[in-house]
Amino acid sequence: MSDRPNPQPVQQSIFKNVTANDIKVENLTQVIQIEQPTQKTQKDSFLGLLKWISEKYSSLERMRPHHAQEVLDIIRKVRQSNGEPFDFTELEIKSLDLALNYCHYVSKGAKARSPGLEKLKKDDYYCYLRELIASKEKIRVGSVKLSSLVGDIKMSKFVEKLEENDGL
Questions:
Q1: Which helix (H) or strand (E) holds 31?
Q2: Can you tell which superkingdom this protein's organism belongs to (predicted)?
Q3: For residue 1, is pLDDT > 50?
Q4: Could you give the percent of the chain with pLDDT greater than 70?
Q5: 156, part of any domain
Q6: In a domain, 54, yes or no
Q7: Does 35 share its domain with 55?
């Protein structure tokens, strides 16, 4: 797929009227068509979003409100996406949403900003994470782990149980 409406191929003549031994080549043309995929941003994937967060902040608790809101907006877009090119699993969305809201709740003493999480207390977050862990599904791990972005040790350990184990 290309960003350009009609990408034009590049043609290059390699040989014209060449004779070698008993072989004669009148014209040999090479056609090259380069198509560039639609550019995705780093934030269109779970692992890319975690990397973006880690480049800006050492933990979710330290996120500035406008960046936290941007992440929540991405979560909302992914949940409402109709075939848009996002690379998130449902578990990754739930765990990121929980972790971000928990960190906001703990560090700012404020209620969660995501619908359905507004009335949760500290133990409720742990309980909800236990349910996700019980599902035996796993979230992907890249160069940055979600658990490494959670400053609260207990919450970080819960999130770590959700992460794929790479056998180490």
A1: strand 23-32
A2: Bacteria
A3: no
A4: 82
A5: yes
A6: yes
A7: no
